[in-house]
Amino acid sequence: MTSTPAPEPDSPTSLPVVEDIGRARAAERVHRAKPPVDPATLHHRELLGGEFWRKIPAYRDVDEATFLDYRWQMKHSVTKVAKLLAALQDLADDGFIEDIREGFHHAPMAVRVSPYMLALIDWSDPYSDPIRRQFIPTNSELLPDHPKLDLDSLHELADAPVPGLTHRYPDKALFLALDTCPVYCRFCTRSYAVGLDTDEFEKVSLKPNNTRWDRVFEYVASRPELEDIVISGGDAYNLRSDHIRAIGERLLAMPNIRRFRFATKGPAVMPQKILTDHPWIDTLSDIVEQGRKLHKEVCIHTHFNHPNEITEITERAMNKLFERGITVRNQSVLQRGVNDDAKDMGLLLKRLSHVNVHPYYVYMHDLVKGVDNLRTTLQTALDIEKQVRGMTAGFNTPTFVTDAPGGGGKRDVHSYDWYDRETGVSVYRSPNVDPDAFYCYFDPIDLLPEGGRARWADPGEHDAIVSEAIENAKHRPS
Ligand SMILES: *Cc1c(COP(=O)(O)O)cnc(C)c1O
Ligand code: SF4
């Protein structure tokens, strides 16, 4: 308590006048500092509406009810070049079609794109379209993989005590419940398992399977430190509603489990399901509601990457989740030519917030086969983070993270112990995973300065490049 006596309420002093002048000055200052808002900065509120899909020749006669039907979306998803051609007809030029024909053939990931995503691509300029770049591979853009890439770069298989459960962090674990998704992203970290086998790759199998799931649940129940489960895959959108119920009720019944999340790209690539798959969304809502009564949080983590992915259809779907009290958080992947500038990233964050989705993480793109043209440098992430922080509420500002190759887990991009911009090697420590280990991330080689490119061109230099960076990290003044 302060001992200063309170001012007498009605004592006549000149103070109010002084205060008024002060206020007027402050108002002037504020007025001068804040010119009228540039309408362009409110662009995040303008969502694409109307029947935009009708510009795709195959969807010309598709009415709204059909386009909103998730079964129609699934049935008409494009997995083969022939089907893509049938949808686009004369919309894309021959050179581009030839390029993707080759691209499909070499891609490590199966291709699957929803009609909704196809309709959001600007087919007059497909090479620079941010949605096309994420889902449809071309041959001409293919770059050599980084020499330090290996297929399970996050060591999810190595950190799995039972098949399909990665237990890396003390209190949380990642449950890979299935291996299919409503779409396949070229940049997928789990391309070692997710999707069908492709022309060039055979996958690890993670089918929805009761015996495998039972082993996962037994493990989770047996570890009292586990409180938090990420249900991913693949994608929880492809779990049937009875799967959602079985997993949800099993986890809710475990006293150690305090929270879990269904991870799904669905809201970004097929919001139609939230609007029209009533049994599925009602089951999910029921699990969230049961959780709430038990004081356990059940929520959705989704994956929007570009502001063009957020339309009036998204808004309707997110409104439905919001009305049901379902928290949705977003994890983006920073991708070259997709969202690697502060303007696009800023618009994405504002637009996500506008539809009540919390931007949670922006990941450095993992080292994944066949997509080095989508990766960018750590420096780009550092710069963008600096630009977007402060634009909006702190809880709507994501943490930019590197999921350190070798199983180091997620590290704040700024927390590197060493970053050599010439060789593109950044070094992180991760005390909660392994206090003695050093984890390296590698910028894509084509974006390095010439000296760095030359060193990587010599395989005899590779070990030296890495051990040098780690030595520097060790001796960094702390
Ligand atoms: C990302 C991840 C989690 C969840 O981490 P959060 O930072 O809480 O989102 C858990 N386990 C593994 C293996 C992960 O990769
Ligand atoms: S939806 Fe997720 S798991 Fe599926 S392909 Fe895309 S990034 Fe991978």
Question: What can be said about this structure in brief?
Answer:
With 478 residues, this protein is of the alpha/beta class.
Describe the structure.
The protein contains 17 helices and 12 strands. The protein has 3 domains: 48-141, no CATH class; 165-411, TIM Barrel, CATH 3.20.20; 416-478, no CATH class. Helix content is 35%, strand content 14%. The chain has helices at residues 15-33, 64-67, 70-75, 81-88, 94-106, 115-120, 130-135, 210-222, 241-252, 266-269, 272-276, 278-293, 312-323, 342-354, 378-388, 450-457, 462-474, and strands at residues 165-166, 172-176, 228-232, 259-263, 297-302, 328-334, 358-364, 399-404, 409-412, 418-420, 425-430, 434-442. The longest helix is centred in the first third of the chain and has 19 residues, at 15-33. The protein is an alpha/beta fold and 478 residues long. The site of iron/sulfur cluster has 10 residues, from loops.
Topology:
Layout: H1 15-33, H2 64-67, H3 70-75, H4 81-88, H5 94-106, H6 115-120, H7 130-135, E1 165-166, E2 172-176, H8 210-222, E3 228-232, H9 241-252, E4 259-263, H10 266-269, H11 272-276, H12 278-293, E5 297-302, H13 312-323, E6 328-334, H14 342-354, E7 358-364, H15 378-388, E8 399-404, E9 409-412, E10 418-420, E11 425-430, E12 434-442, H16 450-457, H17 462-474
Parallel strand pairs: 2-3, 3-4, 4-5, 5-6, 6-7, 7-8
Antiparallel strand pairs: 1-2, 8-9, 10-11, 11-12
Helix pairs in contact: 9-12, 14-15
Cofactor: [4Fe-4S] cluster; pyridoxal 5'-phosphate
Enzyme class: isomerase
EC number: 5.4.3.2
